Amino acid sequence: MQSRNAIVCDRYTQRMNLTVRQLRDLVAVADELSFTAAASVRGVSQASVSRSVAALESEIGAALVARTTRSVEVTSAGDEIVTAARRALDELDRAVAHVRGDPRDIRLGYAWAALGAHTTSVLRGWNREHPATPLRMVHAASRDVGLSSGRTDFAVVRHHVAEPAFDSAVLGREARQCAVAIDHPLADRGSLSLRDAVPYVVGVDAQTGTTTPQLWLDAGEQRTPELAMTEDIDEWLDQIAEGRIIGITSVATAHHQPRPGVVFLPIEDAEPIRVRLVWRRGSTHPARERLIAHLRQAYAR
After folding, report:
1. What percent of the chain has pLDDT over 70?
2. pLDDT (tens digit, 9 = 90+) per residue, 40-51?
3. pLDDT band at 4 (very low <50, low <70, confident <90, very high)
4. What's the start-to-end Cα distance of the chain, in Å?
5. Are residues 254 and 279 in the same domain?
6. Rounded to whole angstroms, how far apart are CA atoms 273 and 177?
7. Cα R_g (the chain), whole angstroms
8. What is the domain-level CATH number for residue 81?
9. In Å, how far are 11, 142, 251, 260 from 118, measured between CA atoms?
10. For residue 281, what pLDDT is reported?
11. Fewer CB near the terminus (10 Å): N or C of the chain?
């Protein structure tokens, strides 16, 4: 019978049999939900990717991908491994780039509006000053804006993100505006109050929205509007353009995501939105403090 130490050693050895290629193939399948598309991304044959993922599943002892003739889905075990693989591959790529002296992108995630009117100047300014670590915007429409999965290094957020898993720094504040259809009864107003929105249905992005009933209560209003959840910023804008809902958002949305048929009106009595830079707790990205300073400078202008 094997001793406990021998069993642990065997398991450790098995873990060491996992290869970088296998992890990259699995991540590609998870991203594409297709072995054919994953093979194209990886520049290898479909059979090669299939064998690689199967070997990884054998090493781990669990099904990571559920395959049918019509679809490919990542299992719950696969989700866990993919998340860990993204982080491991990201750290490896970063280390290799550092040793080689290669440029390494800083992936700045956002769910909507990016940095608003500051987006272009921030990117151009940073990339001019730091060519070895260029800043790249990554759209990630999830509550953690791609941080947990390793898709992003940092994220610009306007909504609340669970504090135990993340750290953050305040960058600045943005005024709120009301988005309405061009033929909406409010569209011709020069500005609005929160009370003006109460009779209407207000749309909120279910994942990353910033509008809650508390916004009206904090302004001293006794009544709050009906809220309707939308899947993402695109559905939110579509429904506003249709006239089905109105929206309360940051001034950054009007700059970064203008939509034909939608007008944005200032709100006189709404608290500004606090904009934060968020990162995974424990992350030690060497550019973090410089990036915070650069973004704060943009918001201070």
Report:
1. 93
2. 888 899 999 999
3. very low
4. 70
5. no
6. 10
7. 23
8. 1.10.10.10
9. 50, 22, 11, 22
10. 86
11. N
To 10 degrees, what angle do helices 76-100 and 20-32 make? 120
How many other CB atoms sit within 10 Å of the CB of residue 137? 16
158 and 189 both lie in a single domain: no
Residues 121-146 have a mean pLDDT of 94
Cα 296 from Cα 24, distance rounded (Å): 36
Quote the tokens at residue 290.
């410089």
Helix boundaries (H) for the chain: 4-16, 20-32, 35-42, 46-60, 76-100, 119-129, 194-197, 214-218, 233-242, 251-256, 288-300
Confidence band for 231, pLDDT divided at 50, 70 and 90: very high
Residue 265 shares a structural domain with residue 284: no
The 10s digit of each residue's pLDDT in 174-195 is 999 999 999 999 999 999 999 9
Domain residue limits at 57: 4-95
Closest CA to 34 of 4, 10, 68: 68
Which of 95, 111, 143 is the last residue in one of the domains?
A: 95
Q: What is the pTM of this model?
A: 0.74
Same domain for 111 and 254, yes or no, is no
Q: Tell me, what CATH number does 195's domain have?
A: 3.40.190.10
Burial class (CB in 10 A: 0-12, 13-18, 19+), 123: middle
Tally of domains within the chain: 3
Helical axes 20-32 vs 35-42, angle rounded to 10° = 130
Q: Are residues 222 and 255 in the same domain?
A: yes
